[in-house]
Amino acid sequence: xxxxxxxxxxxxxxxxxxxxxxxxxxxxxxxxxxxxxxxxxxxxxxxxxxxxxxxxxxxxxxxxxxxxxxxxxxxxxxxxxxxxxxxxxxxxxxxxxxxxxxxxxxxxxxxxxxxxxxxxxxxxxxxxxxxxxxxxxxxxxxxxxxxxxxxxxxxxxxxxxxxxxxxxxxxxxxxxxxxxxxxxxxxxxxxxxxxxxxxxxxxxxxxxxxxxxxxxxxxxxxxxxxxxxxxxxxxxxxxxxxxxxxxxxxxxxxxxxxxxxxxxxxxxxxxxxxxx
Length: 276
Ligand SMILES: C[S@@+](CC[C@H](N)C(=O)[O-])C[C@H]1O[C@@H](n2cnc3c(N)ncnc32)[C@H](O)[C@@H]1O
Fold this sequence. Notes:
The protein is 39% helix and 14% strand. By secondary structure, the chain is an alpha/beta fold. The chain has one domain (3-273): Vaccinia Virus protein VP39 (Rossmann fold). Helix 3 packs antiparallel against helix 10. The radius of gyration is 18 Å and the shape is globular. The mean pLDDT is 96. S-adenosylmethionine is lined by residues 18-19, 22, 56-57, 60, 78-81, 105-107, 110, 130-132, 158-160, 163, 214.
């Protein structure tokens, strides 16, 4: 059967999708030929791509476990991707079985896939919504039913803001989401950076994403990523580290020196608290 015949209704297999590309990078099977071709093109110009993706998964898992240990019981995971394994709810529920996790993605396949994966898992749900449309996302009936905005929330923005163009103002969007959270809430964020990358190579990579369903990829310098967390208090990423952004794989690492790989250096990560 061809990809077109196999694909669920509403899933376009003629255009690569960042969610399905990421699934392929992580060794999943929820991807199509067009996604695999796109990943091969990206990898040709970004050889540490797989390492970066795994470093990022490590950040996600360690940061949400830490947040659960701080007492956070509500998580909104925006740009959740195609759940592969060791997802947010797995890490959180290992600490706090009563916690609620709302997965959000604008790729329709994510919700389809999540329905099967999350069946019977209490305290979880997945909706299709766009980070760039906060009113729709926050006003969604599932969000409203599941998240109590009078209590602290962890907002997870793990490798999603680099799919948002400057024109769509990711800084203003984060401000809008954080504005609706009570003090004691957190943001966990990672993003691919343009720092230390050869601009011609990066140009080839962003050209692949420009032809994907996201319409673009926007790696940013450190200061522009840090600016997403304006007004929040960044927590030290590991013991003895200053309270600032770190490379993706270093966050929460037991051995930050060993975690400091080339792939890890493709992006920055931070967890930051809303204190007032
Ligand atoms: C690289 S994956 C990250 C998955 C997961 N957060 C992780 O870090 O392991 C990026 C995800 O963001 C999603 N995404 C991109 N733009 C988005 C938007 N505007 N709104 C919601 N999701 C978006 C993509 O569909 C994809 O699933």
